[in-house]
Records
---
Amino acid sequence: MEKIAVSCEEPSLDSPVDPRFGRAAGFLIVDPDTLEFSYVDNGASQAMSQGAGIQAAETVCRSGAKVVLTGYVGPKAFQALFAAGIKIGQNLEKMTVRQAIDKFNAGEVDMATAPNRMGHGA
Amino acid sequence: MKELVVISGKGGTGKTSLLAAFASLANRKALCDADVDAADLHLIMDPRIKERYDFESGHEAVINSDMCTQCGLCRELCRWNAISEDFIVDPIACEGCGVCYYFCPEKAIDFPLKTCGEWYLSETRFGPMAHARLGIAEENSGKLVSLIRKEGKKLAEKESLDLLLTDGPPGIGCPVIASLGGATATLIVAEPTVSGRHDMERVVELAAFFKVPAMVCINKYDLNPDMGQAIEAFARERNVTVMGRIPFDPVFTKAMVQGKTIFEFDDRSEGSKAVKVIWENLVKGLETSTCREQS
Amino acid sequence: MIISIASGKGGTGKTTVATNMAVSLGGDVQLLDCDVEEPNAHLFIHPVINEVKTITTPVPEVDMEKCNLCGKCGEICQFKAIVVIGKTVLPFPEMCHSCGGCMEVCPEKAITETGRELGVIERGSRNGLEFVHGKLRVGEAMSPPLIRKVREYARPDVLTIIDAPPGTSCPVIASMKGADFVLLVTEPTPFGLNDLKLAVGAVKILGIPCGLIINRSDMGDDKVKIYAEKENLPILMEIPFDRKIAEAYSRGEMIVEVMPEWKEKFLKLYQQIEEMSFHKNH
């Protein structure tokens, strides 16, 4: 099964989904069938004042995940994820990583075709 | 939490005085001065700085003359003419692209991180405030604007405040773009002059470009009522809500000289009455569905 | 000679001074409006425009046939303007600073340069006065490259007057660097003074002689004058607040048009600047 990257505030399935993609604290890379996971820190992107989303997209891409679940993805990160062939599920803040995965498994997450808000500009 | 960003296109139309006046009227808000290039809001807010941080951003090339063989490759590659004939980098011309550093065959070029300003978290008589000071002649003002707005939002969230009032910079370039991104709405302060109209039109276009809902008010309206009406007509045509008119009133300058908001100085002045009406309209405007919630 | 007119704070009257001085002096003068984000001088000069040029800045374009996905372009770029992700290379042209590093570093010569539009430059004249301004494309973040292009129109054989943008960061530096004199226009208010100090700091870094003009000189307080005295900054002109001037300005009319007696004052202003920069250079 394809692995899923979920933006999270801490390295646990019960962590809240971090609403920000680019500036998320980190990502849980989860196998949606077994719920086995690994954690990638996103601290380096968090500290960036520019290009954080692009950097986070690179991080997710390197992890091998094929799907991203998060709150929102900025336009540049969106473009980058899209180019890497990674699918994007948004508006999943205000729940835990586990709940987001359940929702995804139940087929209740719409995969976005456009970014849902603009970034912070230059 | 919602964020209202006050911008103008043209400088000197009264953004900061107006924002300070709103601070007098708004409940449960935090303040943010995103005009990091020529910050003035602190002159009225008189902030007590509680936390102070360096703003580090970008790099700058420095040639180590002991190791440099003056081969000239860096001068050839540098597109900013930032390296002199005697191989010294002009820090003002250096763009921080790192091309010289990357290609120097002698590894004679350092590329240290630059400190290009300071930012502060403060307390004021109107609530918490995030503000900054970009070093003179420095770059990356857009990045500092993004950072200070992020910090402003954190301040507001920490105290569960409902609103962030952000004072934006003039123009339509990098720092303005950085102050609009993701805002709930923007208030454009226009003045009824040929320049004011021209600049307001460009900034309305900018807000539309970045899909930020825009509202407009006209300061010093009576200087040229015909021009004021023309600006309002343009605004309506572009779906920019007209929030009200402020007469030319010396109360703004008088209050500023004393470091006060116009309401603290004289809440019965013509200017104060007009601003109160605009504020009431803004509160309604921020509640309407066209304005998005911050997350 | 190049005179750059700057201010720190916006709306203090840079354009008023630049246009009135240019028109008062008449021939052998060029006015370059370098406030490319919000150019206004043309609204007062009403030049006949006879040249319009689109200005671009080079940004990378990748030939995926040649690319071996080595990632060196993403590594050298300081601005996150190009990334190698998955099986593709993604340039973000709007973030590119046009340094050419990615093109230089690419071992497969897969990167060439195309243009990103910065805006336009318009050139024209009015009664012998040469006029040039830049207009930044709405949505474009970087104004300094366009400002530098406008400044390429400066001719060494005439007087060049530059109308600079407000602030103290890179666009202002791009408009003042290499000038022979900087005229700082301020107003006698706390905001005016605070921003004036920043502008004076920028002028000092560049090592250019400068003088002050105090606009709306009778509104506010006397702290700008005290500061000017302490810093030894000459006050070259004071323009009192006059509703007639403000209203004329609002209609796009210059002071010298509604009050012709001001022409003498602007001529004298220029003479003073000429003397000051003469003494500095000799």
---
Amino acid sequence: MSDIAIKVENLSKQYRLGVVGTGTISHDLNRWWARIRGKEDPFLKIGETNDRSKAGNSDYVWSLKDINFEVRQGEVLGIIGKNGAGKSTLLKILSKVTGPTTGKITAFGRIGALLEVGTGFHPELTGRENIFLNGAILGMTKAEIKSKLDEIVDFSGCARYVDTPVKRYSSGMKVRLAFAVAAFLEPEILIVDEVLAVGDAEFQKKAIGKMQDVSKGEGRTVLFVSHNMESVKKLCTRAIVLENGQVKFDSDANSAVNFYANAQKLKLNLHSNSVWNFEDAPGNENIKILNINVSPINGDVLSISSGIKIEYSFYNRKEDINLATTVQVTNLKDEIVIHQGHKLAYNPKSRRGVYTISFHIQPYILNAGHYKLGLIFGENARYVLWKVEEFIAFELSSEFEKDLPKVLPGTLYLDMSPEVNFEPVG
Amino acid sequence: MRQERVKTVIEPRSAWFDLKFREIAQYKDLLFLFVRRDLVAQYKQTILGPLWYFIQPILTTLTYTLIFGNVAGLSTDGLPKMLFYMAGVTCWRYFSDSLNKTSNTFTQNAQIFGKVYFPRAIMPISITITNLAMFGIQLLLFFGFYAFYVITGQFSLNLQPELFLFPLLIVIMMLLGLGFGFILSALTTKYRDLKFLITFGVQLLMYATPVIYPLSSLPAKYKPFILANPMTPIIETFRFMFLGSGSMNYMHLGYSIVFAIVLFLIGLIIFNRTEKNFMDTV
């Protein structure tokens, strides 16, 4: 178990921003000239991190920066992070689809990468021919595929159609066949992207089950990239959290998932100030938010039983339109829990001025936890006047006995008025 | 039962002269599956599909016979015009098709290359092999016309003993097509507009190759230029071994062989260096 399967040292990857293709000849010449004189690449700016929301002052960004980690043989490593954190880039480098800018990876064992199912499927070929083609693309030899052909066909459940061209398959059948080929790929190191988790629930279960078999039963090393925290917890023995192209955390899967969730929480305190002057109020030329307040309906602490009152005032400039506003509540898994609006004016007769509106979420609906609140202002239920998806954050506390965990699983927490009946027997 | 584990090192730049022949050999099954896929797909799509391979060279040959043979009155070394042009067109088409189709390997296959790794050179090599099938069909057509001319007594069978060199000609043409294709595909990934230039350039190159005229009809001062073209000895040799006209010069053929091998190796090196980072520029 202590053998190292993959060793990643100082790995960095740089991408060029903007439209690639203009001015590259001159850049190339500059680079070449610098290299001849033994100077560094003039277009590499060290120290710039990849933060998508801010415009950098260089045309180049580091999608990955100084990544270091080791994976032991038989380990299932989860890689988690936001969109654009560098997960896919890391996988692409590991699977040799693209090369790193600096750094080095040493891997012991055949690497098989599964970034997409069904790569290279040709519609005119039959299922059987595509199994061979796809298998060979993924790195299997003809003999290997032949020996597993029956199992693959069996697993896919397409035995009856195996000699029919794939263009006659339903899309579901195509995915099943493609996954079946991938499932019987047997490299010592398997790299899997979460794209595998498409398909219906049954298929996902099958896919996850197969992944578990691969890692547990056969002792192979697996690298697994996912947004789904549950499957990371279930499958992985260890996980790393990537943020802006850097490794932020490296530990067992549970702590990594918690770290990731907490890191998102910390980012939420953007608008602690909830009253603004007209001049610097958030919004645009049509809408300006003057104040917002999230408060309990009962008592003075936001909790499961308190209910939530969301109240805000905004200035509206556009007259004589059908004005509507929507509140959107999102949890930390980025699932939209509530998206509900209200028409403030119809028969187009909105007025210029300050509207104040309050929404009420009754007690015993939302479970405890952190939530993000977004606001949308629209015209005719069609055009967006102004929209902000993560405006402020709030936390619902739980009020359980001391021996229970702070937050129970589940999106909802309902008052289910349980009724119990008991009859002694015997 | 732990077998020896393969060690893979991924680094920004690979060694200059790593030709990856071993890797390509490992993926030979994939190579032949690609060839099979392309052949099957081409034939399944249309009923007229295979027929086109007959119609196109016949039309080209007829056009050349009419314009260059009859209107312009270019010499055909005493050969029947149809046979003369068809011999040139058959060889030239194989070379130019291989070059044209391989020259946009990266842009054409970006989808699949972006998702999975295999030695990228497999793609152009499989295209060149697939093209052999079309070359075979056109060769059959050539033999058909040859037989027709022999039977009707317009031309007497004139095969030369050098015919055993024919497989060598095919190999040289493959290496030339691939070599140019490798280099051009590396360039077209970066400078996309080059593609239009290639189609045009290949057409021009044809006039610098004895396809529509025999080498012997050239004034001596142009000969060195035309002979610098590595396709010249191939077409001349082809005509000589099948039709007995033209020249058979081992020096010239040797030049083609050396040119083809050097071009292929340089092309493969450039190609292998491009494959690493082309995904970022496509």
